[in-house]
Amino acid sequence: MDDGIIASRYADALLKYVLENGDGEAVCAQAVLLEKSLSELPDLAMILETPEEIPDDAKIGLIASAVGGKMEDGFERFVRMVFENRRVPLLRMMLRDFIIRYQRSQGKVKGHLRVVTAPPESLLEKLRSLVKAKTGLDAEIETTIDPSLIGGFVFDIDDYLIDASIVRQLDRIRAQFVDNNRRIV
Fold first, then answer.
1. What spatial distance separates the first Cα and last Cα of the chain, rounded to whole Å?
2. What is the Cα–Cα distance from 135 to 33, expressed in whole angstroms?
3. Which among 2, 8, 80, 94 is least buried, having the fewest CB atoms inside 10 angstroms?
4. Domain with CATH 3.40.30 in the chain
5. Residue 76 buriedness (CB in 10 A; 0-12 / 13-18 / 19+)
6. pLDDT, tens digit, 9 for 90 and up, residues 122-170
7. Which CATH entry fits the domain spanning 107-184: 3.10.450, 1.10.3470, 2.60.120, 3.40.30?
8. What's the pLDDT tens digit per position in 1-16?
9. What is the DSSP letter of 10?
10. What are the residues whose beta carbons fall under 8 Å from the beta carbon of 169, sequence distance 6 or more?
11. What is the pTM for the complete model shown?
């Protein structure tokens, strides 16, 4: 079976559970912390995925430490189920899917904006209104300063990307120049 389908089913199951039990905010916060830890600490992911060298309870203890010490009951049950079913290599994908689905269920969506300098509030408002018009969801926009863009911005939200950076435009011009010169030769 496709990994994406498996991760999606686990994310759906966790979403259904937290919506029924009302502890979605706390579980989502822990899912965000764990997903961030797994992405920033590749050694943690490697340790969790080792088959038999480290007992599952010790690995679950590492996860508890990564999310602040004590896991929410629903989140702990989810993590244990992932370990029991030997789906740990898909955990990060499950967490990402769950976070997106939970935020959408709350009428929110998270976007990421990369800019060269701090963006004007007018740009942020235009992006929020664009997202609201396209999805009907309120956008929470995380901003990162990235001088390598030279100018402009890159905005992504889920699988939607707007790349209005100078670097991208220069790459496009360079590619056109190379294509045109190849035809002449």
1. 49
2. 26
3. 2
4. 107-184
5. middle
6. 989 998 998 899 889 999 999 999 999 999 999 998 778 899 999 999 9
7. 3.40.30
8. 688 899 999 999 999 9
9. H
10. 152
11. 0.78
